[in-house]
UniProtKB/TrEMBL annotation:
Protein name from the UniProt record: Helix-turn-helix domain-containing protein
Source organism: Stenotrophomonas oahuensis
Pfam family, any one: HTH_3
InterPro entries in alphabetical order: Cro/C1-type_HTH (IPR001387), Lambda_DNA-bd_dom_sf (IPR010982)
Top-level taxon of the source organism: Bacteria
Sequence ranges assigned to domain HTH cro/C1-type in this UniProt record: 29-83
Cited CDD domains: HTH_XRE (cd00093)
Length: 116
C-alpha cells in the first residue's frame, strides 16, 4: 500500500479525534507534573481529587470528568484552552493504530473503536 492509501485507511478507521485529544492532554498533565517535581499523590491533594483521577488523566482515560482535568491544571497554574482542531501527526496516528510504540513518557492512546 502507498502512504496515501495508508492515510486514507487511517482516516476511515478514526472517525473522531477524541483518542488523540485525550492523549495530548494526558501528555501535557504528566509533563507538567514531572517538571514541577510533584508526585501523583501531591498533585491529587493540591487539586482536591484522588490519586486514581490523576492516574486516569495521565492514561488519557475517556471517562474522567472535564472538571477534574480543569482542577488539576489549575492546581499547577495552568488552564484548559480550546483551540481549533488540527490533524494528528503521522507518529500519533501510527501509535493510535498500534503500528508503533508511542515515544517514551507519552500516554498510550486508546484503541480505535473504543467507546467513551
Amino acid at each position: 500500500m502507498s502512504n496515501i492509501q495508508d492515510m486514507a485507511l487511517v482516516m476511515c478507521i478514526i472517525s473522531d479525534m477524541k483518542d488523540v485529544i485525550l492523549s495530548r492532554l494526558a501528555d501535557q498533565i504528566r509533563r507538567m507534573r514531572i517538571e514541577r517535581g510533584l508526585s501523583q499523590e501531591a498533585l491529587a491533594a493540591a487539586a482536591g481529587v484522588n490519586r486514581k483521577t490523576i492516574i486516569e488523566l495521565e492514561k488519557g482515560a475517556a471517562g474522567t470528568a472535564l472538571g477534574s482535568a480543569v482542577a488539576v491544571l489549575e492546581s499547577m497554574g495552568a488552564e484548559l484552552n480550546v483551540v481549533p482542531a488540527f490533524k494528528p501527526t503521522t507518529a500519533e496516528m501510527q501509535a493510535l493504530l498500534g503500528l508503533v510504540e508511542p515515544p517514551r513518557g507519552r500516554a498510550r492512546p486508546g484503541k480505535p473503536g473504543r467507546g467513551a
